[in-house]
Amino acid sequence: MGDHFEKGQQALLNEGEENEMEIFGYRTQSCRKTLCLAGSIFSFGILPLVFYWRPAWHVWANCIPCSLQEADVVLLRTTDEFQTYSWKKVVWICLSALNSAFQLIPDHPLITDEEYIINRAIRKPDLKVRCIKVQKIRYVWNNLEGQFQKIGSLEDWLSSAKIHVKFGSGLTTEEQEIRRLICGPNTIDVEITPIWKLLIKEVLNPFYIFQLFSVCLWFSEDYKEYAFAIIIMSIISIALTVYDLREQSVKLHHLVESHNSITVSVCEKKAGVQELESRFLVPGDLLILTGNKAQMPCDAILLDGSCVVDEGMLTGESIPVTKTPLPKMDSSVPWKTQSEADYKRHVLFCGTEVIQARGACSGTVKAVVLQTGFNTAKGDLVRSILYPKPMNFKLYRDAIMFLLCLVGTATIGMIYTLCVYVLSGEPPEEVVKKALDVITIAVPPALPAALTTGIIYAQRRLKKRGIFCISPQRINVCGQLNLVCFDKTGTLTRDGLDLWGVVPCDRSGFQEVHNFASGKALPWGPLYAAMASCHSLILLDGTIHGDPLDLKMFEATTWEMVVSGHDFHIKGAPACAMVVKPCKPASQVPVAGIAILHQFPFSSALQRMTVIAQEMGGDWLAFMKGAPERVASFCQPETVPTSFVSELQIYTTQGFRVIGLAYKKLEMDHHTTAFMRDQVESDLIFLGLLIFENRLKEETKPALEELISARIRTVMITGDNLQTAITVARKSGMVSESQKVILIEANETTESSSASISWQLVEEKKHIAYRNQDNYINIREEVSDNSREGSYHFALSGKSFQVISQHFGSLLPKILINGTIFARMSPGQKSSLVEEFQKLDYFVGMCGDGANDCGEASVASPFTSKTPNIECVPHLIKEGRAALVTSFCMFKYMALYSMIQYVGVLLLYWETNSLSNYQFLFQDLAITTLIGVTMNLNGAYSKLVPFRPAGRLISPPLLLSVILNILLSLAMHIVGFILVQRQPWYSMGMHSICTVQNETTSKLTISPTAPDKIGSNGVFTSFENTTIWFLGTINCIIVALVFSKGKPFRQPTYTNYIFVLVLVIQLSVCLFILFADIPELYRRLDLLCTPVLWRVYIVIMLGSNFIVSLVVEEAIIENRALWMIIKRCFGYQSKSQYRIWQRALANDPSWPPINQTSYSDMPACGRGVSYSNPVFESNEEQL
């Protein structure tokens, strides 16, 4: 149901976005609702429970499909691989409530203007709006377009001119009221979830419902002790979970509550500036920002003035960011795409702190509200915490299959039980109890609890190492990582940059390098002025704050920073302009200072920043700073030295970070804000190069060597220069000295040619014109044989990556197989690259030191380390592997434990007998529960081995291990069951053979045909019962020892002292019970004494079972070499995409292409090859 819909009955919500959903229209039907209500009553609440677990069934049962326009209920289904369902009621908003404030009629100008979504949502003439609320976001029905659309933000199609004209002077009171009612309050409300709600939600988990069923059954069978034990464990588990969830809810509430109670100044069209609470803000309101520090209560577009903002709350990097006003352009292009620069530089994000607000000519700083509530950047971050993206890891899907297999096995056992007990003429209630018992035996209720303990222990060990985890389930995924991407600056290299020197240049070329360590002052000139003024530093409480690189550059000038107006004022400059000036008036510096009038801030995408400055009483100047190749491309060609490439090469090959500087004089007939960026950034004069030293962290090389030796791919993704990145990759060991680096350069389509891609081997010098952007690299013409054997790495820039993605789609996977160095990558490109690696079935980790390293993904990254280096990565992978192996050990153990008990009980059912309550209790509580708690305590092994643990429960070794051990246990139980019946003393019909041998005890004989029943559940003492119980109980201990894996992923079992001690005590107790002739003990456990020889036979059977099981596990299951031989014999090859490509490329003599250039219109370079994206689904051939 739900898949066959006519037009208008279904649509897409948030099309193309990460939270895209399908939406289906339904109308509630009274007769269906009545039937469902009756079903709920007659099923004693089971039907509502099923509807709670399956929301789609609730809608299908209560409603009939209809168009979305008529729907009073909508069914939502996510478009990802999980296809998660939810449903929402459609509610009505009545604008008639506003009539008391002002007369609102259907032909009111505010209603009839249908340019905006808000107006299109109002249904006339009754002035109502249909809406739904999904994951805290409100959607309204657009009557004109016939679809639900997000509300609470300005429309994306608005041009900058439209924003300035429509919202530049504020909204009227009427507009504010209408928007307030439809968009809702500007609040990020995270309610503190009541404990009773959390409790009900946790208790209604299918696992706890099954436990409730089990407990009720056990109470009916008088199996109270274990029932109480399970109840106590469940209560503790539920209490801890509810406490944890409550704590998180309280923390999140306190984190965001301050956002909802901020007083702001808003400019209204007629009423002027008003003070009001931030919760009343609506999209389109005009905010007036003062010079004081302030938290942003919404997302807003800066229209006038400039702001310095601390975005640490969003990015994790507390470096002040300068925001510039949105330029008013005549174009009708949407404001976000009107320039090549990132639109975010005009946006003040919710939750960030405005440190400084400086007005332009008007003296006030104005910003129009862009988004409110949960639509904002902060709201989106909070929503990502409230509604985390589900994780698709095959282990968890396999676990469901595993449970279904156990349910299937239980069903077979139920049928067998029904047949045996019905044919034996047992009472119906006894038959039902015994049949239901089989389910609780085959599907152990303690399974989920046992599985989570391994992850909890791993999380604790990580915490001790300073690694914190907000998503514990991802620890297991870390065990499968086979590719780790690293940022360079601050991650592989040290945080601090030291200004090593500067290389000035003039018309004759580069001059001698000026080394700051010499103590000699740099001569005054435009280069000196650029170093003093071309930055985004700010003065806050007498202290200079800003980017570390800018700080180092400015400190080298020994100048100071002041704000204009304190002790002097520059004519024509804003009153609060930032001014830099020499600390002491010196004869060699002919200017009193430089005022920084306007900034075009640095952007990762543009790789540059520019300032407009004015010398005191002198000219207006424009200074540019950025990537040398980018800066050079904006300069007059004759001002760029001919030795530019070779000079840059000298420093980048040594791993220095190089920055280019340029300037030009500006005409003074404009106001600074009237200058367009492309106007300023043209025909510049190249000034020279700044050389920064950025050393590797001491821990980088050993950590990378450890990963590489474990055959975990390492990839560098950086925003820095390509040659610097190649050098760092070589120094860090990411690329060894014997391996070659092949440079890939891709260029966009031009008027004269289509998009091209070229391949060059990096080695010897070869000049490339500086306008080819980023690729100032030494090239070697010839190819060594090594490069054809796979010992090569590809290096490319973000620009080339973008061109390849667009024009050479079929080459992208081939390049990624050996792509190691990606330079000049923007945050968006970093995220795209990680996704492309995932499409190749790699399990990818990204390690960086801030949000710039992988877009907004790092804001809520699952792991955060206190250790400021990459040592944490191998530790995390080790713990992940240990946790994964632990999960498999527990799965196998719990499967065997349930199957051992299942086999034993079914054999006893043959004689309409079973295990007694105390016998069950001993196995369940004294043996299995203790093993489940202590078996997971093994720590991670200290060394990373060059292969990963199996990623799936249904992998052949694991399946074979479980099946063989089940068969061994089955054989042993059947042998014991049959052999005991053939013993000469069996037919004596004795309660206990001990009574024959012990003359002080009277003989008690009974008729074999009338066994003595004990208890109310039809269990009677018998030699079969005694034999089966001893075999099963001790076998559980044996299986735990056999399955407890140590090396190569976990510490050896003998280091888990508690576990070993538990096993020794358990085995000792079992052997004591077996060989002790204590009638009272036997009576309590419902056992019969047997001859000593038979007890020896039991020990021999168990010993044989242990030896065979251990040999099978070590010689077959854990024998990697054997499995590799089997794979080769059967011709098995990994189905992982990257393995398929590796095999294809290994057999391709033309790969990699060297000294070649291909074009996108050539047949071999089209987009003909596509590949799927089964992320996290890897049938990895573990090599």
TrEMBL record:
Subcellular localization(s) per the UniProt record: Membrane
Positions of transmembrane segments: 226-245, 399-423, 435-458, 891-910, 916-937, 958-980, 1026-1044, 1056-1076, 1096-1117
InterPro entries linked: ATPase_P-typ_cation-transptr_N (IPR004014), ATPase_P-typ_cyto_dom_N (IPR023299), ATPase_P-typ_P_site (IPR018303), ATPase_P-typ_TM_dom_sf (IPR023298), ATPase_P-typ_transduc_dom_A_sf (IPR008250), ATPase_P-type_domA (IPR059000), HAD-like_sf (IPR036412), HAD_sf (IPR023214)
Family, similarity comment: Belongs to the cation transport ATPase (P-type) (TC 3.A.3) family. Type V subfamily.
Residues forming coiled coils: none
Lineage top rank: taxon: Eukaryota
Protein known as: Cation-transporting ATPase
EC number(s) given by UniProt: 7.2.2.-
Domain Cation-transporting P-type ATPase N-terminal residue range list: 155-223
Gene designation per UniProt: ATP13A4
Swiss-Prot/TrEMBL catalytic activity: ATP + H2O = ADP + phosphate + H(+)
Membrane topology: Multi-pass membrane protein
Keywords: ATP-binding, Magnesium, Membrane, Metal-binding, Nucleotide-binding, Translocase, Transmembrane, Transmembrane helix
